[in-house]
Write a structure and sequence with these properties.
heterotrimer, A mainly alpha (about 110), B alpha+beta (about 180), C mainly alpha (about 90), A: about 110 residues, mainly alpha, C: about 90 residues
Chain lengths: ~110, ~180, ~90
């Protein structure tokens, strides 16, 4: 019973952060800010489910393989997400996508665009 | 094209074989033998793409425990702080933002160190590394970071605010 | 037991909310951000449903979705950067 409550707390935290990230993706005004919000989904939004799932699979279901697989899923998402995020942000900037409102400072544009 | 080195092949083989065992999850002899053969072929073919530096750098105990301490204690604290900030911005109507791209210097020299620090910056919500540039005159590397709430435009202070604790932890592993 | 199914449904609803940005987004990078977030959320929903139903197949599918979710992001990013494929 205690285990169920602990797992539910982890899932609930994860749901709250995933909801925050999704709301950010829908409401944010420009492309790069939406990317920042989507990082929220793929860090704590996934990590809460992974930790709760490992606890549930290992203790309630006695299944070591399921626990290890859930851990590897979390590790893969955490390792691969920054690479995709970085490549997408750089590609969007090089393709000429700029926010409607001018940015506070733009050192990349200052150094690379002539 | 680099030459294939033996430690790189061994490291790639271990990772591939662990993944095979994880996916099949049966310990019959024939499955293990087929997995070993396939992993060896893949490692011989692909090791030169994956590992460019020394393969066994994590075998040093001091570096191993510094690495473990960083990923288990220092980094999650920063991650949770940044996530809470981002969630506050999102639930507050996405109005309190001030985006901008700042240029920050980094003390990292090696490829692995640069990759680790830039990916750690990208993984904390609120900052995304967009480009890595090298200054040939001063022998320093610079990161261009998209920051959702620009508080400082001075490179040194902005670098301290973005990656102060992260870089301190990572310099114990690489450097 | 029911709470796992309930959380899985919540995550699926979150993934469906991303469809708005996927349909509306003014440019390709916006659509790709929404697709990436959908991928991660669906992974979470699949982990929870696998724990609810006790079947290991969903975990394998979630693992492959997590692995190959990166490929399309990098492909679109490189395409935007250079104007052609990889």
């Amino acid at each position: 019973m205690v285990l169920r409550i602990v797992c539910d707390v982890f899932f609930l935290v994860s749901l709250v952060f995933a909801l925050a990230g999704t709301k950010g993706i829908i409401k944010m005004p420009d492309t790069f800010s939406r990317m920042q919000a989507s990082t929220c989904v793929s860090t704590l939004g996934v990590l809460g489910v992974v930790i709760g799932g490992i606890l549930y699979a290992a203790i309630a279901m006695h299944s070591a393989s399921a626990a290890i697989k859930i851990g590897v899923i979390g590790l893969m998402i955490m390792v691969t997400n920054p690479i995709g995020s970085h490549v997408l942000a750089r590609g969007a900037y090089k393709a000429g996508i700029r926010p409607d409102k001018p940015m506070e400072t733009d050192d990349l544009g200052r150094d690379f665009d002539e | 094209m680099q030459k294939t080195k033996t430690p790189a092949v061994v490291a790639t083989f271990v990772v591939c074989y662990a993944f095979w065992i994880l996916l099949t999850w049966s310990f019959a002899a024939q499955e293990l033998i087929v997995g070993a053969v396939v992993s060896l072929l893949v490692a011989l073919f692909a090791a030169r793409f994956f590992i460019h530096a020394k393969a066994g750098w994590l075998a040093n105990p001091a570096k191993f425990f510094a690495c473990l301490g960083f990923w288990l204690f220092t980094f999650p604290v920063e991650l949770i702080k940044a996530n809470v900030n981002m969630a506050k911005i999102c639930f507050g109507g996405c109005k309190a933002i001030n985006p901008g791209i700042v240029k920050v210097p980094t003390a990292m020299k090696s490829d692995y160190g640069l990759a680790a620090v830039s990916n750690s910056i990208t993984l904390t919500p609120g900052t995304i590394t967009m480009e890595v540039a090298e200054d040939p005159n001063e022998q320093r590397n610079y990161l261009y970071v998209h920051w959702i709430n620009v508080e400082e435009t001075d490179p040194q202070k902005a670098g301290e605010a973005i990656k102060g604790t992260l870089e301190k932890g990572l310099r114990r592993v690489w450097e | 037991m029911t709470d796992l199914l309930l959380f899985a449904i919540f995550f699926a609803v979150l993934a469906a909310m991303n469809l708005y940005r996927l349909a509306k987004g003014p440019n390709a990078a916006d659509r790709m951000v929404a697709g990436d977030a959908m991928d991660n959320t669906i992974c979470c929903a699949m982990i929870l449903f696998s724990l609810y139903s006790g079947r290991g197949v969903y975990l394998d599918i979630a693992l492959l979705a997590a692995l190959f979710g990166i490929v399309d992001t990098i492909l679109v990013g490189r395409y935007l950067e250079k104007g052609r494929g990889l």
